Here is the input.
Amino acid sequence: MRNIRLLIEYDGTGYAGWQVQDGEPTVQGAVVGGIKKFTGEEAALVGASRTDAGVHALGQVANFKTSSAIPLSGMILGLNSILPEDIVIKDAREVPLDFDSRRDAKSKTYVYRVLNRTVMSRLARQSSWFVKDTLDMELMNKGAELLVGRKDFTSFRAAGSGAPHSVREVTSFTVERRGEFIEFEVRGTAFLRHMVRIMVGTLVTLGMGKLALDDIIDIIDAKDRRKVPVTAPPGGLFLKEVQY
Here is the structure.
């Protein structure tokens, strides 16, 4: 028996998220289907992050156990020849049998892209959030700093989240302009459902001048989801990397 760790990139536009759901197209379902077609085995595929509907990944990590002796290079080529064009296996490696992509992850890095110009884009409409307002970069970076640390992020937790508590640790959060795009990059040990999108929506509202820095502190302290004005849409969010 071998334990194979995959590095996966995908465009999440056409999927109901990573995790398998009855009657819905999912990334996990597509990869499991590809593994079965290629190896003949029904894989129990474990993903590091349960990305939501419409969310993308540059570096999703997933693992599965197999009795197949197919070389790793052949597995990459074979799966990529089967998988839909919006999913690609970037790397495959053999890991210890007790490795678990989700349980063993130390931290995750997400990037959110905002297209900040006067007109929308037909090319980037499913991979960014179009915001035409002028955004204060310095203010958004100061706001991002207030979100770094171990805190109760109840105000940044989606309704219906099944997490037993809302305490999470954000280890870094930066906001940088790259041409017409503004990239919000956040790393943390774990995230609540929609947490990154809610934080980005809050910072963009701050950058528009519709919130003050003191309001960010008040939102954190309130522990009330209703205090957050905007949740950024899913299309701008990318799982960039999982750290082990």
